[in-house]
Amino acid sequence: MVNAAKVLQDLRASAERKPDVVVRLGKPLIDSGAVLKLDADAWLVYEQVAIAALDMGDDALALKCIQALEIKFPGSPRVRRLQGMQLEALGKLAEAGLIYKAILEEDETNV
């Protein structure tokens, strides 16, 4: 777990996406619950894996991550952005647009 968490942290720090690597390393952390042992970094991993899962077409993993983030951070613009991205991945562009529009109406600098 430590090695996977370190690689994920390094990818975040370098701004590298590498969704295949992120999903391969992050999915076991999330499925086993070990991600929660990462304390504050757990939520960064959930977000990172959600985006990677969307890139890879793993809708179930993305949903699992986004739901965990929703519970921890209800109403957060970052979580709502992920929800919009998920809707886009599902081809629900109009619904995604409504989410993005609402986020911008609340804070026009949140882009």
Automatic annotation (TrEMBL):
InterPro entries, alphabetized: EMC2-like, TPR-like_helical_dom_sf
Major place of residence: endoplasmic reticulum
Gene Ontology terms: cellular component: EMC complex
Subcellular location field: Endoplasmic reticulum membrane
Keyword terms: Endoplasmic reticulum, Membrane, TPR repeat
Gene3D superfamilies given in the database record: Tetratricopeptide repeat domain
Membrane-related topology note: Peripheral membrane protein
Assigned protein family: Belongs to the EMC2 family.
Described purpose of this protein according to its UniProt entry: Part of the endoplasmic reticulum membrane protein complex (EMC) that enables the energy-independent insertion into endoplasmic reticulum membranes of newly synthesized membrane proteins.
Assembly: Component of the ER membrane protein complex (EMC).
Name of the molecule in the record: ER membrane protein complex subunit 2
Species: Mortierella hygrophila
